Amino acid sequence: MGSTRGASREHKMLGVTVAMIVFIVSLLMDWIGVSTPLGDVATSGTEANSWWIALILAIIAGGIFGADALNYPPPTRWATLGVGTLAAVLVFAWAAFHLIDGTEGPAGPKVGAWIGLIASAIGVVLAAIVWSRERL
What is the pLDDT of residues 54-86, one digit of tens each? Predict the structure, then answer.
């Protein structure tokens, strides 16, 4: 956490927004696949049954933190940093569960799954730092 000490509150909040955007882009990449001598067979993150839930949660988390960082008023009363942090945690959980689920059998995680997991983890850490300081 030493590298985030010099960053301002707004930079950390924009970091959450960027992390959620990277997660959304990772959904379009290969998440689970099998490498064979004849080539690779892979599926993207959008082929999971619940991909749209992760998409909505990432938009909520990124939107709440981005709007607050740019001093844009929230559209509803429930759009607080706590809700944004919870949405970021749920995005991370979705990515972790689908990464673990993709390791069954001969299939394995591909680059999109790792990018999605890392981006969502960065988003959770930054969101938790900002939210915990807001509560003090």
Answer: 999 999 999 999 999 998 887 777 778 889 999
Distance, CA of 124 to CA of 87 (rounded, Å): 9
> How far apart are the C-alpha atoms of 126 and 129, rounded to whole Å?
5
79: buried, middle or exposed (CB in 10 Å: 19+, 13-18, 0-12)? middle
Q: Are 130 and 97 in contact (CB under 8 A)?
A: no
**Contact by Cβ (8 Å): 31, 46:** no
Closest alpha carbon to 95 in 66, 132, 124, 127? 124
Pairing of strands 39-44, 30-36: antiparallel
Q: Look up residue 20 and give its two tokens.
A: 């959620």
